Amino acid sequence: MELTVGELAKRSGLTVRTLHHYDAIGLLVPSLRSAAGYRLYDRANIERLHRIQALRQLGLPLADIGTALSGPQAPLAEVIDRQIAQLDHEIANASRLRSQLGRLRAQLDTGQAPDLADWLETLQTMSLYEKYFSPEELKTLPLHTDPDVLPQWSALVTAVQSAMDRGATVDDADVHLLALRWMAMLERGTGNNPAFLLRLHAINEQEPQMRELSRISKALERFVEQAVISARLAIFARYLDEDEMQRVRANYGHQMYDWPALIVELRKVMAENRPADDPHVQVLAQRWMTLFRAYAGDDPSTHERIREAYAKEPDLRRGSAVDETLIAYLREAWTHQPLQ
């Protein structure tokens, strides 16, 4: 079967303009010409169009599709199998969303307040996170993929709110445990990805409905932040003397949200395999030291004791995405700086 551009447009659901664009950029060039000089699409062209549209559904831009189709091709049956699997996934998600909405509607019809776990899961299944995460990122975000995470978050929020309601302070031992559990849940919920942590923070700041549904009010968020600081100060106190602790208490936590942004940048240059003496890496390493000294001071012996605490106390790093590989990278970068 040979089709003109108009016939192919009509039967494929695409526009003539789209097909002309594919032709112009060399993505889908008609193989034949009629006796009257019209360009015609043959069976091979139609198979290639199927591959193009399949790759577009997977989110690839046209430039990348052209590159993908320039090499060895998977059998068409395999391409179709992938499409079927993707559709099955979408159908399952749609079915889950329909069931969740049905439960919410039934609860509302009986005058009940919707169950928070169901409500948050429904919100998640809808498109709120898609404003902040790409489809590929959502596949690696446990908050989106792990069905146990949201109910556990809900239980932890309830526990923190109960502590606040009974007048507990951020320095109480049981509140410290809640704060450290909070950081462990952040680590789990974000996959220990600092970029995801920053975006989740942005969702809370920019999407009022998220605060309302999650019950993480600004007051509760501030309470947890202060409790985390207090819990970690209690850990530092095992390693530092009182003079050192006075400075740390006065300054630790002031740049709480500067650290994740810096760690994101460091993770990026590490992934790019930039050498430790790269000028940009040097700037990042110096920024790290500036943040560190802001609460640790300039005494090398204090620095050593704080580093010992970080090495021996997992709760000091929990949720930060700081591991030995990153620390080793920084140490190498610091060897290229004249003064430390």
Automatic annotation (TrEMBL):
PROSITE patterns: HTH_MERR_1, HTH_MERR_2. Coiled coil: none annotated. This is MerR family transcriptional regulator. It comes from Dyella jiangningensis. It comes from the Bacteria. Keywords: DNA-binding, Repressor, Transcription, Transcription regulation. Pfam families: MerR_1, TipAS. Residues 1-71 form the HTH merR-type domain. One of its GO terms (molecular function) is DNA-binding transcription factor activity. SUPFAM superfamilies: Putative DNA-binding domain.
